[in-house]
Amino acid sequence: MDSEKLKLQIGSNIASYRKRAGLTQAGLAERINYSDKAVSKWERGESMPDVTTLVQLAEQFDITVNDLVVDPNELPGNPGTLEKAMTQVSEKALKRKADKRIILKLSSILVWFVALLLYVLLSSFDIGTGWNWVFFFYAIPVNCIVLLSLRSAWHDFRWNKLLISGIVWGSLLSIYVTASFWKINLWKIFLLGVLGQLAIFLWFRMFRPMKETAGKDEADHG
Length: 222
Hints:
Layout: H1 3-20, H2 25-32, H3 36-44, H4 51-61, H5 65-69, H6 81-124, H7 135-153, H8 160-181, H9 190-205, H10 208-221
């Protein structure tokens, strides 16, 4: 199978499984963190998703990567060289995905380990008695920053809204707790968090209507 036929076949399969799952192009795009225009190009055979994305699509449709590659109307037989290669690569991609999850968990553990280490050291030397546990509050925004940086580097933006919110509220909470040790009441600082949360909501909401409208138009023509 040449590359052009492969693109058309994969595009046809994506469209078929998407409609079977009751998803619009925009809905599918949001689930796998792509634009609806990219999904539209795949389904028209103008471009082809990479192997990692094929694995994501297969997971969304609860099928194998091989199901996205082969012609469903062909009689079953021995898998060809292409299908074997795709299966091997998809297995490696799944392993890399599992490795990323481990990295995220280890990174979080490291952040909280540092916070606990500082608490134990200061407590052991009777330094900062009564306020040394504030490090655990600062660990919240730091942990969110670490996770946001890693996921952004991997082009995984699904948790950005939650992580950015965690950075904002965690930072404000840390400042409030720190100020309370100096007998300073900074409860009004949380008003900044309300405005910040509203800005975060509007920022992520700004692009959704455009994607959904474009996706519905593509679905009507599809």
